[in-house]
Amino acid sequence: MSKGSVYKAELMWILPSIALPVIMLGLLLWAAIGRGHDLPGVEGTLDPAQLAKTPPFDKPGTFPAGPNRYQVNMVAGIWSFTPNAVRVPAGSTVEFAVTSRDIVHGIIIKGTSANVMVVPGQVTRFSARFEKPGEYPFVCHEYCGVAHHIMFGKVIAEAKK
Ligand SMILES: [Cu+2]
């Protein structure tokens, strides 16, 4: 191998190893600034010790919120979700507001793209659509202690009569 071709071979490795971090930093800045990804603001914060007096978590449950829309106010805590059964007609879009009364939990709902963290002092909002009738189990996916494995529930999408 000549001296020139060794230099070229080295360059083939050095340039991508500089370009990759530059591209990744560029994508990170694009996601953070260009797409507006940000840390949660103060408007989503609450006192986890005052949940019984803090709307909407003073009334956990499922509530109608318009045609084919429902609102679920859910409190996670060791080791259960309240409510742990959400009953809606099939074809509904459900808007969830979830918070934790103690430590960090998570919720993932099978058959949907819902997969979020549930943090004490923060309100996690997401929505999911339950098109087909049936049961959509959900679990806590963030290890939260010895009985983490019993922390589950289900969304029941009922067939229209
Ligand atoms: Cu857990």
Instruction: Assign the CATH topology of the largest domain.
Output: Immunoglobulin-like
Q: Major β-sheet, in short?
A: 5 strands, mixed
Order of helices and strands: HEEEEEEEEEE
> Which blocks of ≥5 consecutive residues have pLDDT under 50?
none
Count of extended strands: 10
Number of helices: 1
Query: Under the CATH scheme, which architecture of the largest domain would be assigned?
Result: Sandwich
Instruction: Give the termini separation.
Output: 79 Å
CATH superfamily of the largest domain: Cupredoxins -  blue copper proteins
Q: How many discrete domains?
A: 2
Provide tags for this entry.
2 domains, Immunoglobulin-like, 161 residues, 10 strands, binds copper (II) ion, alpha+beta, 20% helix, five-stranded mixed β-sheet
Structure write-up:
The radius of gyration is 23 Å and the shape is elongated. A hairpin with a 5-residue loop joins strand 6 (105-109) and strand 7. The protein is α+β, with helices and mostly antiparallel strands and 161 residues long. It folds into two domains: 1-38; 43-158, Cupredoxins -  blue copper proteins (Immunoglobulin-like), CATH 2.60.40. The protein is built from one helix and ten strands, in the order αββββββββββ. The structure holds copper (II) ion.
Write the layout of secondary structure elements.
Elements: H1 3-34, E1 61-64, E2 69-77, E3 80-82, E4 85-89, E5 92-100, E6 105-109, E7 115-118, E8 124-130, E9 134-139, E10 152-158
Parallel strand pairs: 2-5, 4-10
Antiparallel strand pairs: 1-2, 2-3, 5-8, 6-7, 6-9, 9-10
The structure holds copper (II) ion (CU).
The site of copper (II) ion has 7 residues, from loops.
